Each structure stands twice: as structure tokens, then as C-alpha cells.
Amino acid sequence: MTTKRGNAVPPLDEFGRIRAWTEGRQSQEFFDRAGVTLGIGDDAAVVTDSPGQEWLLAMDTMVEEVHFRNETMGAEDIGYKALAANVSDIAAMGGFPKFALVSVCVPPSWDAARMKRLYDGIYACAERYGVAVIGGDTTSAPTHLVVAVTLIGTVEAGRAIRRDGAKAGQFVFLTGPTGLSAGGLHGMLRNGHSEKSSLPTPSRLIQAHQRPIPSVKAGRLLLEQGWGASLNDVSDGVASEAWEIAEASGVRLRLKETQLPLSGELAAYSRDNGLDPLDFVLYGGEDYVLLGTADREYEQAMKERFRSEGIPLFIIGEVEEGLPGVFAETAAGATKPVSKRGYNHFPKG
Fold it and tell me: CA-CA 20 to 30 A from 184: which of 65, 106, 266, 281?
């Protein structure tokens, strides 16, 4: 790296790099409003919060060549998504995201300038959702980049929306279409090979994969109005998240294929490439919309309020008594089991 005059810049040590990536990113006034007493620079951060609140803690790790590839994600996108995945976990509990700890293991292929772009993405997401980045850790890595984010959020005491609240007679809902992120990834990988499609991948699908939008507003609305009986964020796919709710609650979920939301872009992409869009919708991940259940008495009020807030809401099924499981009702009225699959780092076999 050189200056504009061509003079070499001395290499930075660990602490110099941390300062270069984080210093001046967030103002002291913001830290004061967020309740940060002491942020980056000591052995631990110090934060305060008001009475009547509970802490929510989430952590996600992204590994190069496992969660992202250079041909599908820019450095800024990787940073943004690393934090967004955690924001989505807090949203799924109905909480507010507040404080983040960011740890990076940096290989030689990621120089200081490239890492700065990654932090640009982290701070762009932090600014969007009001998250204070207050610390972390930095180490070297031999080959691949690793980004691990711990996110701390708050929720009103005793009110966090959990997976185990689904009951027979409730309806199942989604707060947005699914499958877009998986479709975008499929298109980018396909177009990176010699057998690529002659048609471009819709930009909405690529955007959904690179810059997913966590559903914080929807989660808060469900908590504040007391509508959310159970809730999960769609990180590993609708099928996987539905199974988690079914098993945690001891119920059976019946999804109706004709009511699953399908975006026009995903439908067109699937048709043009001879693919079944339902595979993306049910088994694709990283859409970060919310899947949940609610009592029937709230259905109309939810529809009206979500519409007024500009938040999508799709009623996609119902909760039934029975052994835990997930089933799909086809357009012809037949019932078939939905396999318990989605993204899994350690699949059986």
C-alpha cells in the first residue's frame, strides 16, 4: 500500500490495524445514547441498560469457502452479512440489536485495504440497525478468512418470542418471500462456469444473497402487539425452521404450497433454467424473513397492521396436533411430508 505521493506506508501491527479499521467509525454521542461506558481499546467493553430488560446474545461465524466465495461476495458484502445474520437472530426473538463484538482471523491474501472494505460493510450494517461495535479480537490465519460476530440485544423481561410457543389451531406465517438468496447464489455460481445460462441472474436475487435485510421491524411489531406465539428467522430454509418450531413446540405444521410466496424474479429464473422454484422457497436459506405462528383471532389485525407498516405478511399454513413434523398440502389437496433439510454444516452420512 502506498500514499498518493508514492511513499511506502509502514506495515501496521495488530493494534494499529484495529485502530485503522474501527477508529472514528461511531461517535461518542452515539455511544452515550446506546449506553456504552467503555468501548474498543480495553480488556472488555462496559455497557449499561435500563431495568426491566433482558439481554439477548447471538453469535455467527462466516468462513471463506464455506459461507462465501470471492466470485459471489465482495469484501463489503461479507462484512455486512456477518453482522446481518446476527441481527436476524435478535429480530427472531422480538428484540433490539445493540452491541457487537467482531473477531477476525486474517490470512495473507486479505491485506489491510481489503479488510478495511470488510469493516466498511460491518459498519454499514451497524449504522442501519443502530448497533454499537464495542470490541472483538484479531488474529492471523494460514489460508482462509474467518469472521465471527457476537451480538448483544435487549428485550422486555419475560417477553422474548421463542420457538416453543406454537399450538394447534394457530396459523403459520412468513414476513416475506423466501428462496431469493439461494436463487441469487445459484445464479452467480452458474454464471461463473462454462455452462452458464445465457440469461442474467435477476439483480433482486443477487441483492438478496449479498445484502439480506433482517426483519427487526416485523419482530418488534409481533412482540409489541402480543401476536407472535412462536418465531424463527429463515437462515437455513423454511423447511428447516418449520421443523425447529414443530419439534420445540411438540406440534405438526401443515404448509400449503399454493400459499407459499414466490417472487416473480425467482419464478422466472427457475423457469428459464429448468428448476423447481419450490426447492428454493422451502430449502434455500439466508433470506432472514421471519417464520412464525399466531392465534387465529389476530389474523385480520395482523394483516391490516403489517399492510399499514409496509411489511409483507403471508399466511402459509396451520398448526395441528400430532407428532412433531412438517407436511405440505399440494394444489391437488394431497398431503406429503416436508423433509427436514436446509443448510447443514454436518449432514448425516
Answer: 106
